[in-house]
Amino acid sequence: MLHIPNILTAEQLNIVKEILNQANWLDGKITAGEQSEQVKNNQQLDELDVYAVKAREIILKALGANGLFFSHALPKKIFPPMFNLYTQHKNSFGNHIDNSVRTSKQGMWVRTDLSCTLFISNPKEYEGGELVIEDTLQSTTIKLNAGDLILYPSSFVHRVEPVTKGSRMASFFWVESMVQSLEQRQVLFDMDMALRNLRDANSSTDSQELIQLTGCYHNLLRMWAQP
After folding, report:
1. Domain interval for residue 209
2. For the purposes of burial, counting CB atoms within 10 Å of the CB of 225, is it exposed (0-12), middle (13-18) or buried (19 or more)?
């Protein structure tokens, strides 16, 4: 899992909120699979809703400009970001695993390697609504600041706890990575972060060791990537 703060700037966040506050929210079951339909109780925007399209453009632009997102996800495809809303009446999503392949209304097929939640509501605006992600060892409870993003393997069981007060708005989407293996992506991410730290600490940009290590990173990516 990776928490990336401030994917959206304060200005971008305000624009997205203004757009979504004008939208027509529908029953979230419109995109649920057979299993998740039984536990899904929220509201959602239609993928082709004009307001969803406008807000999506801002989010995709922000993702494209974020180096940490690229380094961790190594995105080959990004499913068009969607939007959900949890309130006191439509307020939870029980334990489920995301479908292995998603298809958009525009005909894009995406293998879901990573699931992403971008928080749009400030945590002070609602009570409950925590995202709970379970891996083989532990459960992690997540409630981030507005504009922050959490990425996690789509194979993990997860849920959204009931919202008991206020409303929780978020964007959610999936990434098909150029590197399908979780273990290989982790190795590449760790190497990239270490290289960034070494560059920051080393005043010499032509250090032979840095050049060699950078070459190792790109050779591994060349070996594992399926662009």
Report:
1. 182-224
2. middle
Give the 3-state secondary structure of residue 74.
coil
CB 80 within 8 A of CB 102: no
| C-alpha–C-alpha distance, residues 99 and 17, integer Å | 28
Rounded to two decimals, what is the model's pTM? 0.91
Q: What are phi and psi of 35, to 5 degrees?
A: -80, -50
* Residue 36 pLDDT: 58
Place of tokens 């206020």: 166
Residue 159 neighbours by CB under 8 Å, 6+ apart: 39, 92, 93, 94, 95, 96, 131, 132
Residue 64 is inside which H or E element, if any? helix 50-64
| CATH number for 87 | 2.60.120.620
Cβ distance 8 to 118 under 8 Å?
A: yes
Type and span of the H or E element at 72: helix 67-73
87 shares its domain with 170 = yes
Query: How far, in Å, CA of 4 to CA of 150, rounded?
Result: 6
Using a pLDDT cut of 70, give the percent of the chain over it.
Answer: 94
CATH number reported for the structural domain that contains residue 215 in this entry: 4.10.860
Copy the structure tokens of residue 28: 């979230």
The number of domains in the chain is 2
